[in-house]
Specification:
The chain has 31 helices and 38 strands. It is of the alpha+beta class and about 1100 residues long. It folds into seven domains: about 10-90, 2-Layer Sandwich (Beta-Lactamase); about 100-280, GAF domain (Beta-Lactamase, 2-Layer Sandwich); about 295-425, PAS domain (Beta-Lactamase, 2-Layer Sandwich), CATH 3.30.450.20; about 435-445 and about 460-580, Beta-Lactamase, CATH 3.30.450; about 620-700 and about 710-760, Beta-Lactamase; about 780-920, GAF domain (Beta-Lactamase), CATH 3.30.450; about 925-1070, 2-Layer Sandwich (Alpha-Beta Plaits), CATH 3.30.70.270. The strands form eight sheets. Strands 16, 17, 18, 19, 20, 21 and 22 form a seven-stranded antiparallel beta sheet that branches. The chain has a six-stranded antiparallel beta sheet with strand order 25-24-23-28-27-26, with helices on both faces. Strands 31-30-29-34-33-32 form a six-stranded antiparallel beta sheet, sandwiched between helices. α20 (about 575-620) packs parallel to α23 (about 735-780), α21 (about 620-635) runs antiparallel to α23 and α23 (about 735-780) packs parallel to α26 (about 890-920). It is rod-shaped, with a radius of gyration of 58 Å.
Length: about 1100
């Protein structure tokens, strides 16, 4: 359902509501924007939307500043970002509403004025006329006070009438006052504001230019605005009609109707004056009767009155029903009227020369259309009324139709027989025609507003204007201020559409441009007799008459409307008024059509950008992303010149472009130089628009014909990728709406790049995790610390893809490099605990990473090192990875290396533990020498090695003399100590490369790699007599036997054979010794 929550808003919506986009998003268009619920309820809107309809309704809304405006809303459903939403296109119809309200108000005013005139002219006493006038003025204008000053024919104050507490008007006029100014000029006066100091707005000046302040009486009474109108009696100002208000600018809207009322008041006062003088004497009456500017008839209704009395006597009670049943009675009774006399104004009105001619033509002057009015007069007579007023139609002698306002009153003394009735006929043809013209204009404006399609709107405008002003040629041109052009969008010549070229928006180039720049209409009834203000050029047939009207909508010049004739054409007041009224409506229609077209185009662009966004999400590479965006910039938004620049270390680099020369690819703009609009946009992460690059000192030329440039950062939050750069060959050639769309496109590209980067990061991370797993398995097969460390750094470089890696292990308080692999070679040096990044990592037991320049304590061993990751290997040492470029590592890299460091730590512990266990397995626990089980393994390995390399190998067997007696005499503890003494003596006098074993009991064995028979014999000789620790009490004597093998001289012996030979010699040596 349409809940009204705003998901997205265009710049036009921002302008229309006064809210920035950020505030509009999330607001509810029904609760927060609408001022009242429209005629079509929101519930009905939802029902119709659910049926798939597009719902159109009018709605009153409130702007951010609290002001109200009207829109025509077109609401439809559509898919937005994967969900069902509604698109609401809001066309501003405030101007149309205002015009409609003004027309309705005008019609109401005219109706009220007609009623007012009827009441006013029904009064024949001057005081009643004045009182009625005052009451009507306050009713029609909403003013608090009204009063009247009347003068005699010599200009002396005749009366000052200040009814109902109005501020009194002085009987003595100021030499320089408002009343005197109105009397002298014969013009009305409207003052919007009277200030406490008597000054006014507008300033009132006399003919000499001197300021006329407000009367102190008005100021003290608190009057803040007034209007004064001259009352013309027999063509001369004989009174002043004032309307006052306690509010400033309170009478602005009422001036036109008050002016009309004043005109009728003058006539009513003149009639009242005539009536008064008629009562004074027939001769005087006749003079006044003749001189009245109003058509006056003195008629005899007595025959009609008698005929009606006869009907009543015949039993007729309902005259209206009788007249419907006997329509012929209307003509019959009308023929009973007798005209006694008419005045000169009547003869002039009906275009006859004498009363006789009038009487002769009377039947022709009263057409059939007058019968409905006569029916109402008969009903007034039937009811016994002595006065009547109504409207009807007459004709002049020449056949011209007259719309008349007819009123009559029975003269005093003739109320019984109606033999003297004064009839006044007022020609209201201009008023009726104006009302009809107003209705026609209103209908025309309504028809013109019936469409939002520009072509259809132009056609309707042309048709409706032809109905008012028949023309031979017509055109409408739109104003393009940015390009300095007038663009014709419709041109007709004798009903056929023709093509017109664009016109420069220069005043001397054409009358059309002159009208546009002056902002005023121009009417040329005959260009040959009235030369235009600038050179007059025609396209097509020669033009003799020309009219051009600027089309303003909400203060903005939309275009120019022109009508032309091939013959001289009269642009009278009526034609001009109609053209101006229609042009005002046409401007609003065109503006709405243009806005609708812009909204439609914007919606289409947004839809296509939405498609682009979906394509971006599916792209698999940056190259594909850039191609999609540049294609959208060109084909969706219509820009020819576009480039995408990436941030690479210390500069922006052009990666892809459209419309530029091929050599632009790869161009660099260094950040350090601070040049370039794109660099400024990237560094500030804010879009930069330059309407005229010639005035921008930062501009770096990329296109010779470029006149404006827009640089938009491609970023997501603080993550900046580069810049989308657009250039145009016209000054200020990128509109605000287009800038917004390009920003959306750049934002979508940023999101896509971030997503692609994350995808690649995840893929890379996945690959590295697989490699890390394989590396950890490889580490598990290492046998020594050195192998673990070397395997780790090789895996970091080869499997994980880093440039350089090294491992340092702690020895006392020094971190010593033990393994190093990478592009920088085997560089490294020891670091004390806490020294440099490596020493700090080891000391604190936590990782550090980033750019070297950001770490003052860093001590790089090579100046090419720009960034690093340093992670602790438990408390054993540090694993470091380095790179020759800045910002080379991510948090993911740190996490991987921390995992690897833990693996290295565990494998180092494993190797140590395995070494300990192996030592325990091959060592004799008492002496610490290798045991017999390890002897067989070592001997077989050394035999194979001697055979492979051709080196000699010797084996010595050792036996402690009289060991049993030593145990028996001194005990087993001394015996064990004797075994230890022998082991120590052997370790201290045998080479480090030789192997010493406790073979069993008191027997020992020594393997001498790369030692021949003489060498073995020399070792045996040294141990023949006790020495050193063996000479201490109890003295230990040893017997030794040996066997040697030289693979160059004899075949490989078996282990048993070698032992047998050494054992045999030992036995012989022991047997040769004397018994102790």
């Amino acid at each position: 359902a349409f809940d009204g929550t705003i998901l997205e808003a265009t710049p036009a919506a921002e302008k229309q509501t006064g809210y920035p986009r950020e505030e509009l998003i999330g607001k509810n268009i029904m609760r927060d924007i609408a001022a009242e619920e429209p005629a079509v309820t929101y519930e009905k809107v939802n029902e119709r939307l659910a049926r798939g309809e597009t719902v159109v309704f009018e709605e009153k809304k409130r702007r951010k500043d609290g002001s109200f405006y009207w829109t025509e809303c077109a609401v439809t459903q559509f898919a937005y970002k994967g969900q069902l939403a509604t698109l609401s296109v809001n066309r501003d119809i405030t101007e149309r509403k205002k015009l409609q309200e003004e027309l309705e108000h005008r019609v109401k005013e005219l109706s009220a004025l007609n009623e007012a005139v009827a009441v006013l002219t029904s009064q024949l006493e001057r005081k009643k006329v004045v009182q009625t006038l005052v009451d009507l003025a306050k009713s029609l204008s909403g003013a608090e006070f009204a009063n009247i000053l009347l003068f005699d024919e010599e200009g002396n104050v005749l009366a000052s009438i200040d009814p109902l507490g109005a501020p009194p008007l002085p009987l003595r006029l100021r030499p320089r006052g408002f009343t005197r100014l109105i009397l002298e000029t014969g013009k009305p006066l409207h003052i919007r504001e009277i200030r406490p100091d008597g000054s006014t707005d507008p300033v009132v000046r006399d003919e000499a230019g001197q300021v006329i302040p407000a009367n102190l009486v008005l100021v003290e009474a608190g009057i803040r605005s007034l209007a004064g109108f001259p009352l013309l009696i027999r063509g001369k100002p004989r009174g002043v009609f004032f309307v006052h208000s306690l509010r400033s600018a309170a009478l602005d809207q009422a001036i036109p109707i008050l002016s009309l009322l004043a005109g009728h008041a003058g006539i009513a006062l003149e009639n009242a004056e005539l009536y008064e003088k008629l009562a004074q004497g027939e001769a005087f009456y006749r003079t006044l009767f003749e001189e009245s500017p109003i058509s006056l008839w003195l008629e005899d209704f007595s025959a009609v009155k008698k005929r009606l009395s006869a009907l009543r006597q015949a039993g007729i009670t309902d005259l209206r029903a009788y007249l419907q049943a006997h329509p012929e009675f209307l003509k019959e009774s009308l023929g009973l009227l007798r005209v006694i006399s008419v005045n000169r104004a009547t003869l002039e009105l009906y275009e006859v020369k004498s009363e006789a001619e009038l009487m002769e033509e009377l039947s022709k002057l009263i057409p059939e259309e007058v019968l409905p009015l006569w029916e109402e007069e008969l009903l007034a007579l039937w009811e016994g009324r002595t006065h009547f007023r109504g409207r009807g139609v007459n004709r002049t002698r020449t056949g011209k139709t007259l719309h008349v306002d007819l009123s009559w009153r029975v003269l005093p003394g003739h109320e019984e027989d109606y033999s003297r009735v004064l009839v006044s006929i007022l020609d209201i043809t201009p008023q009726v025609e104006a009302e009809e013209a107003l209705r026609r204009v209103n209908r025309a404006l309504a028809r013109m507003s019936a469409t939002l399609d520009l072509s259809e709107a132009l056609r309707l405008i042309a048709e409706e204007i032809r109905n008012f002003v028949p023309y031979d040629a017509f055109f409408v041109a739109l104003v393009d201020k940015k390009r300095g052009k007038l663009k014709p969008v419709l041109a007709l010549e004798e009903g056929r559409e023709i093509a017109l070229p664009e016109l420069p928006l220069a005043p001397k180039e054409s009358t059309t441009a002159w009208v546009a720049l002056q902002g005023e209409p121009l009417f040329l009834e005959d260009v040959e007799k009235t030369p235009p203000p600038v050179s007059f050029k025609t396209v097509g047939k020669p033009t003799r008459s020309w009219a051009g009207i600027p089309l303003f909508a909400r203060g903005e010049l939309v275009g120019i409307l022109s009508v032309q004739g091939f013959q001289p054409m009269r642009f009278g007041e009526r034609e001009r008024a109609a053209l101006l009224a229609l042009a005002s409506g046409a401007a609003a229609v065109l503006r709405n059509a243009l806005l609708h077209g812009e909204v439609q185009a914007l919606a289409e662009k947004l839809r296509r950008i939405e498609e682009v966004s979906r394509r971006l999400k599916l792209a698999e590479s940056k190259d594909e992303l850039y191609e999609i965006v540049l294609e959208a910039v060109n084909k969706v938004l219509g820009f020819t010149y576009a480039a995408i620049m990436e941030a690479q270390e210390d500069a922006l680099v052009v990666i892809k472009h459209r419309g530029y020369p091929p050599e632009l690819a790869g161009r660099r703009l260094p950040f350090a130089e601070g040049k370039g609009v794109t660099v400024a946009a990237f560094l500030t992460n804010v879009p930069v628009y330059v309407p005229d690059v010639k005035k921008e000192p930062r501009y770096v030329a990329g296109l010779p014909l470029a006149r404006c440039e827009l640089a938009i950062p491609i970023s997501v939050g603080e993550r900046k990728f580069g810049v989308l750069n657009i250039e145009h060959d016209a000054p200020d050639g990128i509109s605000a709406e287009e800038q917004d769309l390009l920003k959306i496109l750049a934002a979508e590209l940023g999101v896509a790049l971030l997503g692609l980067e994350r995808l690649h990061r995840l893929e890379n991370l996945g690959q590295k995790l697989i490699a890390l797993h394989a590396l950890s398995q490889k580490l598990q097969r290492c046998q020594t610390q050195e192998e673990v460390c070397q395997t780790a750094v090789e895996g970091v470089v080869e499997a994980l893809g880093f440039d350089q890696a090294n491992v340092g292990l702690g020895q006392n308080d020094v971190l010593v490099p033990v393994a190093c692999v990478g592009m920088l070679g085997r560089k490294g040096r020891p670091f004390k605990k806490g020294e440099g990044i490596a020493g700090k990592t080891w000391a604190l037991g936590k990782p550090f990473w980033g750019n070297v320049e950001d770490f003052p304590e860093a001590r790089p061993v090579d100046p090419r090192i720009k960034s690093f990751v340093s992670v602790p290997i438990g408390d054993r040492g540090v694993l470091q990875v380095i790179a020759t470029k800045t910002n080379a590592f991510t948090q993911d890299d740190v996490t991987l290396l921390e995992i690897l460091a833990r693996h290295i730590f565990e494998e180092l512990r494993r190797v140590e533990l395995e070494a300990e266990l192996r030592e325990q397995a091959i060592r004799d626990p008492l002496t610490g020498l290798y045991n017999r089980r390890f002897l067989d393994e070592v001997l077989r390995r050394e035999l194979a090695r001697a055979e492979r390399y051709g080196h000699p190998l010797s084996l010595i067997l050792i036996d402690i003399d009289n060991f049993k007696e030593l145990n028996d005499r001194y005990g087993h503890l001394v015996g064990d100590e004797a075994l230890k003494r022998v082991a120590k003596a052997l370790r201290e006098n045998i080479r480090r490369v030789d192997y010493i074993f406790r073979w069993g009991g008191d027997e020992f064995c020594v393997i001498l790699p790369e030692t021949n028979g003489p060498g073995a014999k020399e070792v045996v000789r040294r141990f023949q007599e006790p020495f050193g620790i063996l000479a201490e009490e109890p003295v230990i004597r040893l017997t030794l036997g040996y066997a040697s093998w030289d693979p160059r001289k004899e075949p490989t012996p078996s282990v048993e054979d070698l032992f047998r030979r050494a054992d045999q010699l030992l036995y012989e040596m022991k047997r040769a010794k004397p018994n102790p």
